Amino acid sequence: MALNLxxxxxxxxxxxxxxxxxxxxxxxxxxxxxxxxxNLIGRISKxxxxxxxxxxxxxxxxxxxxxxxxxxxxxxxxxxxxxHQMATQTNLVRYAHIKCLxxxxxxxxxxxxxxxxxxxxxxxxxxxxxxxxxMIQSHGLQWSTNGLEFAPDAQIGTSNVSAGPVCLKPSGPKxxxxxxxxxxxxxxxxxxxxxxxxxx
Length: 200
Known about the structure:
Layout: H1 2-5, E1 10-12, H2 15-21, E2 28-31, H3 38-41, E3 49-51, H4 59-66, E4 72-75, H5 82-94, E5 100-103, E6 107-111, E7 116-118, E8 125-130, E9 136-141, E10 157-170, E11 175-180, H6 184-193
């Protein structure tokens, strides 16, 4: 699914193994190179390896810092280790000016753009999770978020559902949206047409 949306692939360190296993030759491999299989190094041109030795950032963050593209689709960053997933969610917000859609087995996750509209089928699960203090105007949700003050240690917005076409306008780049991955194509198209956050 991800390669259909974004056919030019970049591997985050050991993600090169998965890309090659799925028949995709990455144009770049970025990371600290601590988890890539040694037997794969000979299968990828040396000039495609971009080793970043510092340990203050995750491989996902290293990729976001170095990729220039209209949209980024990330696979392999949701599920498995919870600490890795939480770090990834933090980086989504830290680099909110980069349109990035993460795909997992069940969910699709992204930072809600300044003005985001999506024509979801009625009763589609749409969770809103704040990564900082933020407000968000909404239209088309069963439970309105208008006037509410969200924060990760206070009001959150999980397990809402669509009542029709949805429009979201957050006050800042701090709100994550979590939707069923089955709507990945629709989410991708909607993100493409949305305004991006300015560089923080």
